[in-house]
Amino acid sequence: MHIRRDTRSLFALLALAAGAVLASPYAFAAYPDRVIRIVVPFAPGGGTDVVARTLAQEMAKDLGASVIIENKPGAGTIIGTQSVATSAPDGYTLLMGTFANAVNPSLQAKLPYDAHNDFAAVALIARSFNLVVVNTASPIKSIADLLAAARAEPDRLSYGTYGTGTSAHLAGELFKHMAKVNLTTVPYKGAAPAITDLLGGQIQVIFTTVASAASLVAAGQLRALAVTSAERSPAFPDLPTVSEAGVPGYAAEAWYGLYAPARTPPEIIDRLNKSAARAVRSEAFKKLGVNEGLVMVAEPPAALDRYFSVEEARWRKVIQDAGIKPE
User: Fold this and answer.
1) SS3 131
2) In the chain, which stretches have pLDDT less than 70?
3) Which domains does the chain have, with CATH numbers?
4) Three-state SS for 105?
5) Rounded to two decimals, what is the model's pTM?
6) Are 229 and 57 in contact (CB under 8 A)?
7) CB-CB contact of 101 with 115 (8 Å)
8) Helix (H, G, I), strand (E, B), or coil: what is residue 222?
9) Which residues are registered as beta bridge partners of 207?
């Protein structure tokens, strides 16, 4: 049978197109068509876990696929983070990144992944802050009182932390550095034992998470002096920022950001970003924002990259100036 030359050319083009589709496992695929995992590099029940589970629930509705949480704690978030760095870049394994991601490169001489090059930003989900709290029996009723007490008796006051490089630790170190005061650092294995000692008078102050202290503040067992964010929080409108209360320029935030492995196709990143943005506008996230003191964000991936770089540089300086070493 005689086939015209232009027909043969059309067949050739179609064959090339078919080959391109087969060569790319992601091209023209219906994403998502199976379960998506969000790895949380902490144990269940903490603030990051709560945020991730709410995000998974809302994104599942939008994506039309199951989104599950996989808790992989250990080594200061490094184990869970590495597991995502080495996962297939197909959009089915994601990481709930946090403050720790920006801190670990300055704390660890060598990480088993590159904090910049092994991940693709999806969305900055939310920013948070800590509360500066004291025992209600304490004579310290403001940041000004705390500064005055620390300057009057430099070796007497102590603050509790939840481990090297945690937000409670570095928020305190930044305070000491910027206010030029000395507070003795007392490390604990978590918020609960630190707060127990604060209630018992063994330590004098904690720069703690909202989730760990809000109920005790509401019950009158702890006194909140200020928020560590750059601006006042709608959740605590009567509390000043540390900056306006006596340490100008002070700001220490926690944050939650969604990441995929590097080389995840841009169209999948875009789909996930849009889904995350819809999720944080949900009623579930509005309620979470009030309970956890969150400021919802969900901006484009480039915004997370910029934010991460600023946070990494900020905490590197604090860590170096304070001579902080990993445990």
Assistant:
1) strand
2) 1-29, 327
3) 36-128+253-322 (3.40.190.150), 129-245 (3.40.190.10)
4) helix
5) 0.81
6) no
7) yes
8) strand
9) 132
